[in-house]
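Deviations from the work plan: none for this task. Representative record:
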Amino acid sequence: MSKTNPSFLNGVPELLVLKLLSRKEMYGYEIVKAIQLQTKENISFGEGCIYPYLHHLEREKLVTSRRTEVNGRSRIHYRLTSRGNKRLEKLSVEWGQVAAGISALMTDKHA
Amino acid sequence: MHSGTVIRAFERRLFELGCPARYSQRSVAELAEHFEDLLRARSEDGLEPETARARAGEELGEQTILAERLVASFRQASWWGRHPIIGFCLLPPLALMIILPATVLGLYALFLRGNLFWRHSIPLDEFKSAVVTAPAAFAEWNNPLLCFIHSVPIAVNTILFCKLVSRSGSGMKWLLVTCVVCSAAGFFTWTGFSSNGFYLGYGSPSVYNWISAAVPLLIGAAILVWRKRRLASIGVPESENLEPLLELPIDPSQGGAKTRPQKFGQPRIWLQEQWFTPTSAVAAAIVVISVLLVKFVFLHDKADHAKMEDLRNSIWPAERKKVFDLLQIRQTVTETTAATPISLQSFATASLSEPVCWYGRTNFATLSDLPRGLHTFAGVPFAVSERVQLMGNGYKDLGIAFPTAIKGIPISQKSRFLHILHGASFLRIKVPSVPDEKGFMPVLPEYETTNSAVALLVLHYADRTQAEIQIFSTKHLLDVWGPICTSEVPVRERCVSSPESELAWASAWMPKEKAELFNSVRVYKSRFENPRPDAEIVTLDYISTRTEAAPFLLGLTIE
């Protein structure tokens, strides 16, 4: 692991979004609610902020979008691409290393 | 807070930041859906409608900051958005160098098809002849046409870069910058026609370049007006700022949200954060350097124009007069002894009123004002009647034929010297191109026939032997059309190198174009020593060496 990993630390929202989209295709509001629910609202933010991330991921071809009509309402659903899947795997491994490292540090009684 | 107000504020901010319409529509639709979902959720929680709206708006986040983040992310996604200085300051002038010839060629192709200028249709032959003819004939419609031709590619260039600004979401600042850069590029780019076709380049501006420079500014102004109307149609009160606040400090107390300075309360901070950015500093430096460069070029050009005006108005006219006075003096004194002018009347192949000077396929000058009969030129009497014109490849290109040799000119006497009054067309060495007062740059054809034999004099003696005398360009004569003034004209373009040759006559006819003030129709006198002065010359042949040059003989005198 490198001495610093700013890109990874900055990529936490990306990891969360990719992880959620790996389960099923979702639209923006769904993603926000899923994050709030599954993180027990420990991570909260202005909900509109999800869209710059989603659009960025789409431009990077990590997710694709399609417009659908649901109950007379237009939704833009996002879905993970194979490239996004690989990115998710990479980010998950890195996150596991960071989490393990932090956990080890936090539980070290001699620290 | 009304949902429409929330979304319109978001939409307005996106528009203010220069977000492309398609991306803006999608983002607005997405955020509106999100807002509706939040509103339903809060209503289901049992909140009053107004409270639910306010709560939903709060949960959605600050719309203007959200818009700024979206646009910042969008800009970072494209090369143009990441490198606006290169893209919108440096590339437009370079792109113009490609777009200008491409557009002009396209226009010319349309013209050839007869689809353009149909109201003022000019036959193709007339167009071509107007392009290649003397500037006087060309100038009648040259400038408006050039102005139009020049302005179209500049408009295309400006629209292209405005489109790139729009597509990259780079905002109004860069749109105005690129319009100004395109305007400057238009101002300093010139276009023109020569006998060889179309040419362009960067250089001194002419009066018509103001029109070309105004085109990008008009496009920028039109976009500004359209933008103002569009903002009015969105219908939300003016936002606090015109330009994006994409580099705002992060305020941890607001969950990482950016804090917005107050425009009116803290104008200094607002200015610093919006305009005093590193990008703006680099752009400003480029503008300052450009202005200094423009000033340097402009001043330099102004000095050149002043110098040229001086040449045109006083120096060259005075020098012309001096040359004519000198030639006049040389026509009054005969320096030869026992000279016998030979009549060439029966060998003439062209009249003096037939053209000798050509721009491409169009002639513009003759020898018709050359004194006829027995007349002294450069101290030697000649019997001038018509022109003994020989063939040169320059005439071949025009489809005109002359004999390649005139043989058997009777002499029947001994002589020490032979004097000839002669000249040649298509012998031009490079003549300096001087822009006229409107910036038109005449480009004259270059027939490099320097220091080569263009004609021969073959002497046939009574003992059936013969001798050959070669007539060299540059040494014995220069092109029939060329400079007679001295200022700003290289010596090699106005003086022959042989001491036995000199300018014998120059036409007082003056072209309409002021740039041509230093030029005139020129005829030379050359003296050749007879290799066998003790032998009688029976006849003389005048032969062309068939180079580009077409030599002609006007007088022959035996001394």
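Chain A has one domain: 10-101.
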